[in-house]
Amino acid sequence: MKKLFIQTYGCQMNLADSEEMAAHLLLRGYALTDNLDEADLALVNTCTVRDHAEHRALSFLGRLRQWKREKEGRHIIFAGCAAQRLGEKLKKTFPYLDLVSGAREIDHFASLLDNSGLFSAAQGGEAQPHGITGYVTIMRGCDFACTYCIVPSVRGPVHCLPSADILAQAAQKARSGCPEIMLLGQTVNAWKEDGKTFADLLNEVSALPGVQRVRFVSPHPAFITPQFLAAVENNPKIARHIHLPVQSGSTKVLREMKRGYTRETLLEKIDALKERGFALSTDLIVGFPTETEADFEETLSLVQRAGFSAAYCFKYSPRQGTPAAQMKLLPEKILEERLDILLNKVKGLAEAAYAAQVGKEKEVLMESPNKGRTSDNFWAQTQKSYTIGTVVRSRIASAEDTLLMTRD
Ligand code: 5AD
Ligand code: SF4
């Protein structure tokens, strides 16, 4: 049997897209491998949100030149956001590339494979998801225009999938062994359908047979409204964790980024979520052009005040065609210093958030016999072994860095 190796860069959306593309390839006679040397097909699913992410994907593609030469009949597919941005011109620089499939083409991936003449026809059946989480993409694209961000131009405007399709997909994933459903979208909580809101959808997905927990990523603060909070607060199947990208703690920088909120309105939303038992994680950018020392201090103090249990921190990276790319860059040394300070702060907060769980009773959804995640997204290790996919209730005995130890 031919073997497929997948390399995915970027966000959860990309992981889900890789899974979807893999399913089409498995139906065409491939088996997955995590060893590139024994693979016949390499699928590289790429990200372009920062220059660094795109570079990594392109340098991996560069290394595949030699890999392809080593064995007759090897093929390479380059997919995702960098593929979307760079398009067919990739084939000029990398003539050994077989197929380019941009992120917006995911719905046509099967016909792209069939039209290439490189693959055999699909044989029926449904690919089984691996792991306990079933990813379901509910919307694609983004209607915001944050001045640093390339995503709207790469992924296009918002397109919401119909709730009937979303529910059918989630039900199928739950039936095939996924007690956790993760709803995905660039601005996932912007999802809507006549008369139906994102909160309605969350409640409907959580009511499907076999669904124990529902997560979603990435929400935009603009859609965290009192109506949303009221609709989700009494549903314990909706995970008590929200990954809310805030980007900065300075109202001035937020305005320059065109994020559509201020430090104060953000803090109100953060407080409302915390009052309802949500743990919060976030994304932050340091060194956006015009960010002063005082602005950066505001980010540090917001991070402290919010008590994020995790944060992804990035140095600002100018992206071609975005408004901020016209602005004057801060010196790299400043970006590095600020990133270092922020990472240290975030590490301390994560450890404190884990330590604060000691003594509490938690529900752990097992992802391996001894390890799982709590509803508020803390990793926990159990003493005994349990069946994967079951929920174990136990008190937390201790915390070691970013791992909780249960009593049972
Ligand atoms: N530079 C640095 N970080 C960025 N992000 C998005 N665009 C940029 C950029 N130009 C970060 C944001 C976003 C995450 C996916 O990547 O924090 O939430
Ligand atoms: Fe990267 Fe954005 Fe594409 Fe995700 S959607 S892979 S973060 S560019």
Write a brief caption for the model.
This protein is of the alpha/beta class and 408 residues long.
Describe the structure in your own words.
36% of the residues lie in helices and 22% in strands. The protein is of the alpha/beta class and 408 residues long. The strands form five sheets. Strands 2-1-3-4-5 form a five-stranded parallel beta sheet, with helices on both faces. A five-stranded mixed β-barrel has the order 14-15-16-18-17. Strands 6-9-10 form a three-stranded parallel beta sheet, with helices on both faces. Helix 8 runs parallel beside helix 9 (226-232). It is globular and about 60 Å long. The protein starts with a strand and ends with a strand. Bound molecules: 5'-deoxyadenosine and iron/sulfur cluster. Residues 11, 49-50, 148-149, 245, 247, 283, 285, 314, 316-317, 319 line the site of 5'-deoxyadenosine.
Protein topology:
Blueprint: E1 2-8, H1 12-26, E2 30-32, E3 41-46, H2 51-70, E4 75-80, H3 81-86, H4 90-93, E5 99-102, H5 109-116, E6 133-137, E7 139-140, H6 151-155, E8 159-160, H7 163-175, E9 180-184, H8 198-206, E10 213-217, H9 226-232, E11 241-243, H10 251-257, H11 263-275, E12 279-286, H12 293-306, E13 310-315, H13 332-355, E14 361-368, E15 371-374, E16 379-381, E17 391-400, E18 403-406
Parallel strand pairs: 1-2, 1-3, 3-4, 4-5, 6-9, 9-10, 11-12, 12-13, 16-18
Antiparallel strand pairs: 7-8, 14-15, 14-17, 15-16, 17-18
Helix pairs in contact: 8-9, 12-13
The chain binds 5'-deoxyadenosine and iron/sulfur cluster.
